[in-house]
Amino acid sequence: MAINNTTVDPYSPKRGYYECYDCGERETSVDSRTECESCGGEVRNIAVPRE
Q1: Which of 26, 38, 40, 47 falls 20 to 30 Å from 9 in CA-CA distance?
Q2: What angle do CA 24, 28, 30 make, to 5 degrees?
Q3: What's one Pfam family here (predicted)?
């Protein structure tokens, strides 16, 4: 049986899941975030599309 890798999982998160580098606070948002609402630190999007 051969595996066909030409199709990509169409999963794409509808919300962003953000985590603060400084305090570790996690929050969700449909808008892009660059700053933590709790401490003002930098956040990263931890919702990653599957491939």
Answers
A1: 26
A2: 140
A3: DUF7129
Q: Which residues contact 12 (CB under 8 A, 6 or more apart)?
A: 49
User: 26 in a domain, yes or no?
Assistant: yes
In a domain, 36, yes or no: yes
The neighbour count for residue 4, using CB atoms within 10 Å, is 5
Q: Note the pLDDT tens digit of each residue in 14-44.
A: 778 899 999 999 998 888 889 999 999 999 9
pTM (predicted TM-score): 0.64
What is the total count of domains within the chain?
A: 1
For 33, the domain range is 16-45
Residues 6, 26: Cα–Cα separation, whole Å: 34
